[in-house]
Design a protein that fits this description.
about 375 residues, outer membrane lipoprotein receptor (LolB), chain A, alpha+beta, 12-stranded mixed beta sheet, 9 helices, single chain
Length: about 375
């Protein structure tokens, strides 16, 4: 009897060991992809934007951003592992569930100007209406296909492209493409994308800071397959006893209420200001692509606290054009905060550009900016 019990447990242990070893075994399988040039692979990746798929992905971000009060959701997204279930019918119709020990936060994109957010912890469904011209990064931006499409688009044709060694991702042989930005002011040193060579669907993306050997951001599928869109999956179901609220994407009072409507200059640090979006005159965006930085003027106590809070969070105190300032540096995202002497507005400059460029922009800003 004891021998039978031992044998049964031996079978169970062997089965568990086999299951645990499957990812290692799969990664050790031979990788074979057709011969493609960098331009051919890039074209297939860009053409895959309309692919319908479903899968499970994880992103691992090590941006090195210090904790910032009021932005804990953003800092956790850019500093740690995000686990995601994904369904995409089209680029404008998708669902991404973020899984955590505390529950789920599901985002449903129904159209370009209507979405829903489900918070399982609070049992609350929020409907968001209106186009989202400016918004903070969200988990859906880190899904491999969305991330790859955005980086290739922002990298532009001036970037250098080359083929790199294939790897196995989500049980598939994936062809590799490397993009190296041409503008050395960008904090992005290179972007490596591995995609299904037939469909072009990106399966893994790695983003490296300039001069770094480890990716500051990695996003990959562990499982993914073609998917026939099911409206029941893409439409939120409000069950009995759940809360509901409606908000407008353009109603950013929580973010914009302390912003100063400042006459920002047309150019900073040799970068031209991008076209102003209606309703967002207080936000300045300069440059373009992977060398874009934003400029915000923050009023009152909210602005006065920015510099000491940044220093407390690990930033470096500075003096720019005679004003108090602080600098926050991370592998992919940098920020400079400056308060000109005698001025009641504190300026925040942040983007995927070098700290030297941001300091130059901050210096010019304190000399050129005027209040309307």
């Amino acid at each position: 009897m004891k021998i039978q019990i031992v044998r049964r447990w031996a079978v169970v242990v062997a089965g568990v060991a086999l299951l645990c070893g499957l990812p290692v075994i799969a990664s050790a399988l031979p990788v074979s992809v057709p011969q493609l040039t960098a331009s051919q692979l890039r074209a297939r990746i860009l053409a895959s934007a309309d692919e319908s798929y479903a899968g499970y992905a994880e992103s691992n971000a090590t941006f090195g951003l210090p904790p910032v009060s009021g932005l804990t959701g953003l800092t956790s997204l850019l500093n740690g592992v995000t686990r995601m279930r994904v369904w995409q019918a089209t680029p404008g119709r998708w669902r991404v569930d973020v899984l955590s020990d505390a529950g789920e936060r599901d985002t449903y994109q129904l159209s370009g100007d209507r979405s829903f957010i489900w918070n399982s912890g609070g049992q609350l469904l929020t409907e968001v209406s209106g186009p989202q011209v400016y918004r903070l990064p969200r988990a859906a931006d880190l899904v491999p296909p969305a991330l790859a499409q955005r980086l290739l688009s922002e990298g532009g044709r001036q970037a250098r492209f080359s083929v790199i060694a294939p790897v196995r991702v989500a049980g598939r042989s994936a062809a590799g493409l490397r993009m190296t930005p041409s503008d050395t002011a960008s904090t992005v040193g290179r972007v490596d994308i591995w995609a299904d060579p037939s469909s072009g669907l990106p399966l893994m993306v790695e983003v490296f800071g300039r001069g770094l050997g480890r990716p500051a951001l990695q996003s990959l599928f562990f499982q993914v397959s073609p998917w026939h869109p099911d409206q029941r999956v893409l439409t939120p179901d409000r069950g009995p006893g759940t809360g509901y609220t409606l908000t407008n994407a353009a109603n950013l009072a929580g973010v914009l209420r302390n912003l100063a409507l400042v006459a920002l200059p047309a150019e900073l640090a040799g970068r031209v200001r991008l076209p102003i979006q209606p309703g967002f005159e207080a936000v300045g965006a300069y440059g373009g692509g992977l060398t874009t930085f934003a400029v915000l003027g923050v009023l009152g106590s909210a602005g006065r606290h920015l510099i000491p809070n940044a220093v407390t969070a690990g930033g470096t105190p500075l003096v720019i054009a005679g004003g108090a300032a602080a600098e926050i540096s991370a592998p992919l995202l940098n920020a400079v905060i400056v308060r000109p002497p005698g001025f009641f507005v504190t300026f925040l400059l942040a983007g995927t550009v070098s700290t030297q460029l941001l300091e130059q922009a901050a210096t010019e800003l304190t000399e050129l900016v005027t209040l309307p």
